[in-house]
Design a protein that fits this description.
GO molecular function: glutaminase activity
GO biological process, one term: L-glutamine catabolic process
Keywords: Acetylation, Hydrolase
Subunit structure: Homotetramer.
Helix content: 40-55%
Number of helices: 21
Radius of gyration: 33 Å
Strand content: 15-25%
Shape: elongated
Strand order of the largest sheet: 3-2-8-7-6
CATH topology of the largest domain: Beta-lactamase
Distance between the termini: 42 Å
Catalytic activity: L-glutamine + H2O = L-glutamate + NH4(+)
């Protein structure tokens, strides 16, 4: 019995695997009732211990949510990494690092103890966080808290408010933090009025967030400071990477070693019941459940992180990226030339020197290991004159990768090899990263389209080996490949049916969807054939035909534009059909020529497919 296909309603109700996994975590861990709600700040003790929400944000801006993911709670110590990163950017790394250490303390988060230099151990414990807030307070004065609140909002992608009741409760009961602050002032770590510094600190801890907010904030950390939902570069990659480093070693206080050993994701907890985890270049996770363990971490939140890391093998030190996967295709122009239809003399030159243009198409992240592999792979074959690196499938470029790219390009310049970059828009972040290191190099050209880059390199080969490309040259019907084999009388009869058309640069000669009612034989200039979605199919020069598919189909399937001033012979299709009936031998020859031209195009297309599937 043939199984029935699933209904369309079942398809629309289906859910992504990650969302189903989070639902499973929510259902399984809701039964966990160990731990207690924090009550040393009286207002926190009012939280409903049954609350449980989970959210996960991807780096393309999608946010999954289950349970009580929109229930607000105070950020508490989860503010610490973001304020530390803000201080690094606002005040400079030298100033911040001279006042606050980066070593794990092994003590609880509220320990009243400094390191051997009488500085806080790190910015994740209260002493370091108060010192960090004090540095911002000393620099920004009365605007300090607003700077912090706005920065936290940019990380979350929305404006964040303060829970005044929690702020007041924390202020009234924060004697331990006052003791820490006075210890810092005694040791000249903070210079401003202790009460003013603590007022800012208590307010930053009382900022309201949700599990969804902290997932987006964590994803922003994982995305080198770019909020994946808003697209804003919140803080510099330097500040973000240093912050993640400290989160890795100290984010979970005296449980940090166990955390990074078992879970392996930089994280930060807060006594309000939140945990955020940021897996670099992967995702951000946020959870909320007020019951805490003896270390001050959410019991259910830890279980969610453990399950996510274990189920999907996400430990950050267990990466399996293979640099060899960065190359999706590697070929010369003999295997896959440009879509430019060349004249016989040009084809002969390019066939004789096809190895002089090497094309390497890349995919994924342009990292140091990927660039190193590509450079060694390039050196493993004879040196070309031109190398095209196509980056349109590259999703990101690391600074290390960009720097190694520049060093590889410098070496190619010393060997008189011209580098051509394609697939990168000049307004993109990837372009800026590359140009930071390659702007001074004289051997680098760039084109957005790969085909344009290959075509330019082919032109240079033609020029270097004695050929010429004269776009102003005028050709006659006898030089048309589609009309090869026709006699003089046949060509003369066909010419009598033609009208010479003139087109200005940029003119649309043929429009997709229009009736296919004429053929064109390009007499001078150049045109390009483009699909309606913008994909360029071919570039044609004098001596080539276009619109010839009118012989096989009734409607135009592509647009044709003049690349420059051009002239063409136009033959109405009805008149051409009469010509074919009057000259059956010529008709047979034309259809044979058309079949050969189409076969040649298919061979080129198949060669590209073979390249992409065999690398």
């Amino acid at each position: 019995m043939k199984p029935l296909p699933p209904s369309s309603s079942a398809w629309t109700r289906s859910r992504p695997p990650l969302l189903r996994f989070l639902d499973t975590c929510l259902n399984e861990f809701s039964a966990e009732t160990s731990g207690a709600v924090a009550d040393y700040i009286p207002e926190l003790g009012k939280a409903d211990p049954a609350y449980f929400g989970i959210s996960l944000a991807t780096l393309d801006g999608h946010v999954y949510e289950v349970g009580d993911s929109r229930v607000p709670f105070t950020i508490q110590s989860m503010s610490k990494p973001f304020v530390f990163a803000l201080a690094l950017d606002l005040l400079g790394a030298g100033k911040v690092e001279s006042a606050i250490g980066v070593e794990p303390s092994g003590d609880p988060f509220n320990s009243i103890r400094l390191n051997s230099e009488n500085h806080p151990f790190n910015p994740m414990v209260n002493a370091g966080a108060i010192a960090c807030t004090g540095l911002i307070q000393a620099s920004k004065g009365a605007d300090a808290f607003e700077q912090i609140r706005l920065a936290l909002g940019r990380f979350a992608g929305r404006d964040l408010a303060v829970d005044e009741a929690v702020y007041s409760s924390e202020s009234q009961t924060g004697d331990r933090n006052r003791a820490i602050a006075y210890l810092l002032k005694t040791n000249a770590v903070i210079s401003d009025n202790v009460a003013d510094v603590l007022d800012v600190y208590f307010r930053q801890c009382a900022v309201l967030v949700t599990a969804r907010d902290i997932a987006v904030m964590a994803a922003t950390l994982a995305n080198r400071g770019v909020n994946p939902v808003t697209g804003e570069q919140v803080l510099t990659p330097y500040a973000i990477s240093r912050t993640l480093s400290v989160m890795t070693s100290s984010g979970m206080y005296d449980y940090a070693g166990e955390w990074i050993y078992r879970i392996g994701i930089p994280a930060k907890s807060g006594v309000g019941g939140g945990i955020l985890a940021a897996l670099p270049a992967r995702l951000g996770l946020g959870s909320y459940s007020p019951r805490l363990d003896k270390h001050g971490n959410s019991v259910r939140g830890i279980k969610v992180c453990e399950a996510l890391s274990s189920h999907y093998d996400l430990h950050m030190l267990n990466r399996s990226d293979d640099a060899r996967n960065a190359v999706i295709a590697d070929y010369d122009i003999g295997k896959s030339p440009s879509r430019r239809v060349r004249r016989p003399q040009e084809r002969e030159i390019l066939a004789a020197h096809q190895q002089e243009v090497r094309v390497i198409e890349l995919v994924g992240t342009l990292s140091l290991s990927a660039v190193d592999y590509v450079s060694r792979r390039l050196a493993g074959r004879p040196r070309p004159q031109f190398v095209v690196f196509d980056l349109h499938r590259v999703t990101s470029t690391t600074r290390a990768g960009a720097r190694l790219v520049a060093e590889a390009f410098e070496e190619l310049a010393a060997l008189n090899v011209t580098v051509i970059i394609s697939g990168v828009k000049r307004a993109s972040k990837e372009w800026n990263t590359l140009r930071e290191w390659t702007a001074e190099l004289k051997n680098v050209r760039d084109f957005y389209l790969l085909d344009t880059a290959i075509e330019w390199a082919e032109d240079q080969i033609v020029y270097r080996y004695g050929g010429s490309i004269d776009f102003h040259e005028t050709t006659e019907l006898a030089e048309q490949p589609l009309l090869a084999g026709l006699g003089d009388n046949e060509l003369a009869d066909l010419a009598s049916l033609c009208t010479v058309r003139t087109y200005q640069s940029g003119a649309k000669i043929v429009a997709a969807g229009d009736p296919a009612d004429s053929l064109f034989f390009l007499r001078s200039g150049a045109v390009h054939v483009t699909l309606p979605d913008g994909v360029r199919l071919a570039t044609l020069t004098a001596g080539m035909a276009f619109g010839e598919m009118a012989l096989l189909e009734a409607t135009r399937s592509a647009d044709v534009f003049a690349d420059m001033a051009a002239t063409a012979f136009e033959v109405p299709l009805k008149a051409f059909e009469r010509f074919r009936k009057q000259h059956p031998h010529a008709s047979e020859r034309i259809m044979r020529n058309l079949a050969q031209l189409l076969a040649d195009r298919l061979i080129v297309a198949n060669a590209k497919v073979d390249i992409l599937t065999s690398t």
